[in-house]
Amino acid sequence: MYRYDEFDHQLVNERVAQFRGQVARRLSGELTEDEFKPLRLMNGVYLQLHAYMLRVAIPYGTLSSKQLRMLAHIGRKYDRGYGHFTTRQNLQYNWPALKDMPDVLHDLATVEMHAIQTSGNCIRNVTSDQYAGAAKDEIEDPRIVSEIIRQWSTFHPEFSFLPRKFKIAVSGTPDDRAAIRVHDIGIQIVRNGKGKIGYEVYVGGGLGRTPMIGKKIADFVPKEDLLAYLEAVMRVYNMYGRRDNIYKARIKILVHEIGAEEMKRQVDAEFAEIRKTGALHLPAEEVARIQAYFASPAYETLPDESTELNKAVLADPDFANWVKSNIAAHRVPGYAIVNISLKPIGGTPGDCSSDQMDAVADIAEKYSFDELRVTHEQNLTLADVRKKDLPAVHAALKAAGLATANINLITDQIACPGLDYCALANARSIPLAQQISERFSDLNRQHDIGELKINTSGCINACGHHHVGHIGILGVDKKGVEYYQVTLGGAADEKTAIGDIVGPAFTEEQIVDAIETIVTTYLGLRQPGERFIDTYRRTGIEPFKESLYATH
Amino acid sequence: MAQHSRKGAQFQALTANRLADGIVVYLTADNRWSESLQDADVTEGKEAGEALLGRAQATVDGNIVVEPYLFEVTHNENGIRAASVRETIRQAGPTVRLDLGKQAELPGVHR
Are residues A135 and A251 in the same domain? Predict the structure, then answer.
């Protein structure tokens, strides 16, 4: 993985020193809250419902064991023994004190981490595919481009005061695990007819109160032109993005208002201008330098079949279930991708205790080349595990309470922190996810239901990605009481879709039953081989509406 | 953002976050900030509420607390309770981590 060079080190250390001074001046009263707030936000420090919250950047979701151990340490020393992995592949601490924040950032900096680009109207932490480098059908490792974008965008003076925050996601495979079509810019790595690698570019996707699917404005941006092209997009946005209305400030509104064609025309014109100067031509040697950091680890030459694995599958049904749902195919024979579910039955999606972080760090160090990934679905991934080590990995995860076998099943839900932690939320998300998880805890039933993604957000800002859940749940506040609105048919993959609102909202008491009714309706309608989303696409919303509201 | 206080709320208290650590606090009758809502000064009516807000300003200026606001409360046999789900959670702690926050001193607050 990428290692800091002298510039990265200097940049992060200087930022820690600056923030230490800023915090001291705030505590002494030299800075007012109005003066200080934008400064703390630039360092990932929010004020939430119960306390401050610190959001730590995990660039494209990649972590070393050492970094994860530091996150565990910070959770223990400065917080309450746990952290929360988010849909942005980041980690949030829920209880740190402001006075400790400079020390936390200092500790993070010792392992090449920080909280830069986790807040504010800048280009945020770049997100990507958790299977990067290991996926079977990968055209190119998306971490290379993600790292280049990180370096380019960090503290870029032209993009520090954008109309609104800006999120970029990169996918290196045709199967989209990074939800690129619901980002401000989505980059799909492609190979053209001549065998050359370049980028398809989508703009104007996003969730929040106005969900939009990104529009493709470029079929093939050559590698060396990527930054120039992105700069062109950013300049058009910087020029025409709405600064007068926060709800209309994201690039998705601009693209929607002027249309994809006009957006493409303007970006192309800007791109042509930039190319004239050639200032942003990506030098091949710099790309090669960064690429070297993501070279394949030292894989062994192994047979693809593992007798150890096959024996263990036959001997242990728990292990067999885990292999069935949590293991994905690896491009190298004899290796597998391991998904670690952070969705135990009845647990909080994305929460991980410091002890669990230490356990995962040890497992990653021993079995997966000392590295792991955070997924936007709030799970963890060990990308490079030998198949013959899977029984040992499973046993170690089980000992840490991390062997839940439910990836992509109904209990593998996304949920934002909601009203239990968040100052913006209107309703709770986590308890709903927990109740749904309990209701569908039977593993045979989960497998019978098959792939089904339930995403819950506690407010319209949609951190829980409810618009793109196969079943989406949105918490709303009606005179101080929580209600839940349901959408159906959303998807965040290569067939991205925004869910349709099914009807009037449900109360807290009704919502889990309503989800069960939806599931039962699907089971009654499905044809052989259909997943929930396939059935929904075939039948539309009507049968679900009928079964949900006929009894009300 | 969720509403903090219903328009026309009869009883209100004043809350804020402590600057240094962010912890939720409530303004008391003698202008201190307490971590317990049970110590809060509860006022009746709109004007008294505004006066309460006014009293907080000195401590905001003195960098003791940030973001003060009024919210609706009720009195019952269990003492002072926040009226909304939001403020109940803020008062007691997350409903999904009953070991965290202030709920140890508020048995049954989350039902």
Answer: yes
